[in-house]
Amino acid sequence: GRVDALEARTAELEANQFSTTTVLRGRTIFSLADIFGVDEDIELSASGTERNILGEDDTNTVFQSRVRLNFDTSFTGEDRLRARLQWGNFVDFAQTADAGTNAIANDTLFAAQNSFSYATNTSGNVRLSRLEYYFPVGDATTVYIEAQGGSISDIVSSISSFDDPEQGSISYFGYNPIYDIAPGTGIGAGLTFDFSDNLQLGLGYLSGTGNDPNDGRGLFNGDYAAFGQLTFGLGDSPLTAALTYVNSYRDNSIVNAYGVSAQFAINDAFFVGGWVSYYDSDELDGAGDSRFWTYAGTLGVADLGVEGSLLGLIVGVPPRRTDFEVAGSRRGGGIDDAALHAELFYRLPLTDNITLTPGIIWLQDPGNNNDNDDLVIGALRTSFSF
What we know:
Radius of gyration: 22 Å
Order of helices and strands: HEEEEEHEEEEHEEEEEEEEE
CATH superfamily: Porin
Oligomer: single chain
């Protein structure tokens, strides 16, 4: 009868199910975007050479997309093995920043000025972009093994409700850029230790060449980022704050970075936050020593008009060089102007699995150069989860 039919269907499902331990979680993003106010300017780099940063009207409206498939496996109920497949066809708008010979600054510190938080380009291929396993040790410690694509904020909290490429800010500037000072490959390990519900210590090491046995590379001889963070108020406290330190080596540059991040929930709907970070970069090729600052304030309003919505405002200064000391002398120079980043977005849930987020970004003095015209970036992000 019905019981036999139900048992037969159940047996068929069990025989053909994907896995008893693995869950598939998918995320897809559609993005419609354009940039306005583009003009042709010439900017002097730190080496004194001219560089064409932007050409007049040389950008077009774009429709871009990204897909992520996360295969999450748990063996004990408290651990997680994540393997992520990713595809994306994003092409950034024209470069708006130049940090001279400092490779770390060029590749990571200035990413916030014209890049979307969800931008991904896999050159038409599906790639394994993330491979991670974490597990608890006792009641207070969690160990993270990063085999591919690990980042600092995968191990410690970035202290920002906007740090979510599908549901948070439109730009990378939705959280402290200090968390982006890490090699792209992200191979290494880390751990967190909870002293209490409101105090956590996080430590980690990530290598950009950990899979390469050649000379000057490998897990400990190539690019790396070593970091530590004290996080306060992770429990039910309305205030969450973090003190972060990162030591990184990349392309003959060593960066020591120090950051403070905080977020305070005024009530169930309103929260404010922000960060300040300082970077000291020593260029080992003899060019000199650079110092950078970045800071911002954030405001969030949850459930505005619709339950599950989020209005976000970010105003701040992306990383800018405030001092450059030429090697072998006390002569300074190379000070950047201060770009201003102002971003407003509104996340609107259409269903339990689809959200629509219009956002606008205003960049004053983009590229940290007040000779450049202001830029306005508009984007409409649609996020699907399944």
